[in-house]
Every structure is written in structure tokens, then in C-alpha cells.
Amino acid sequence: MSTWRKLRFHEEVTGLEDVEFVSRAMNGGWDIHYCADACVVHTHDESWRQTLHRYERESRTLVSLDPKHRIGALEAFNLAAANISADYWYGIRHGFGPGSLGSVAKFRSAQFMGTWRGGRPSRLTDELRRKFYYPAGLADPSNESQVGDMVEY
Predict the structure, then answer these.
(1) Which of 72, 71, 75 is CA-nearest to residue 83?
(2) Distance of CA 129 to the CA centre of its chain
(3) What confidence tens digit (pLDDT) does each residue in 43-66 have?
(4) Which is higher by pLDDT, 121 or 29?
(5) Are 73 and 112 contained in the same domain?
(6) How many CB atoms lie within 10 A of CB 14?
(7) Residue 94 lies in a domain
(8) Quick check: 30 and 1 in contact, CB under 8 A?
């Protein structure tokens, strides 16, 4: 039986599902292999706030799997600055216009601020949990009256 058929993604994990899946697979004794020629493209069309919240959720998940992945505010600032600089330099060398440079700073600031915020001790109130994980129209599984059937793959 394949690892995927046995383990599946946890439906309640809303970020880093692949990392959580691999962590369970490795803990279960499965081998993980890297395939260098595999090509995956994954994009998000998000506002700054949505990007911030996505990275906060993903950081929260990563830190719950391994607390050593928590970063402090100074490290987050330094990583954002280093990545913005590297992205700008790449953009200049490859002919990207100045208009794209502002979006780089916005994205990187949301990425590292969210990562820092997600690693801090939990401040996830019920209201914030609903906002992060169950946007308008999506059922909250902690409310049994909203829960439908489990997704079968």
C-alpha cells in the first residue's frame, strides 16, 4: 500500500500540509525521496493581510511540529531585509521594472512578520481561529451542526 493511501493529508491542517504529512511518514518508518526533476508551481493571489495570515498559520504548524523553527523579531527583520535585497538584486539583473520592487517588499514583510507572529506563544482565540481557518462560508468543525461528510480520496 502506498504511503499516500495509508496516511493521507490531515484535513484540519491549513498550512504546511506536505511538511506535516512527511513528518508523520518519517515517524512511521517510511522512506522519503527527493525527485530533482519534479516541477511544481504553486501561487497565491492574496492581499498583504492574507499573506501575513497564511505565513502565521504555517509558522504555527511548523513550530508545533518542531519548536526549534521559532524565529525572533530581530531574526525576522534581518531575514526580510536580506530577502528583499536579494530579490531586488535579482530583479535588477534580470530586467524587472521598478514597479515590481514594491510588491517584493510587501510580500517579504508579510512573509517574515507572519512567520515571527506564528512562532510566538499562542494567542489564538476562538475568534481568531475562526478568522484564520474558517473564512466566511466555510464550516467550523468544532461546531458539529456545521460539519458535513469527511472527504474521501
Answers:
(1) 75
(2) 15
(3) 677 899 999 998 998 898 888 888
(4) 29
(5) yes
(6) 15
(7) yes
(8) no
Residue range 72-84, pLDDT digits in tens: 999 999 999 999 9
Distance (Å, rounded) from C-alpha 140 to C-alpha 128?
Answer: 12
Residue 135 and residue 49 in contact, taking contact as beta carbons nearer than 8 Å: no
Query: Mean pLDDT over all residues of the chain?
Result: 80
- Positive or negative: CA dihedral 118, 123, 126, 131: negative
Q: Is residue 74 part of a domain?
A: yes
* Cβ–Cβ under 8 Å, residues 65 and 20: yes
Query: For the segment 1-16, what is each residue's pLDDT rounded down to a tens digit?
Result: 677 778 877 766 666 7
DSSP helix/strand/coil, 138: coil
- Range 28-61 burial, b when 16+ CB lie within 10 A, else e: eeeeeeeeeeeeeeeeeeeeeeebbbbbbbbbbb
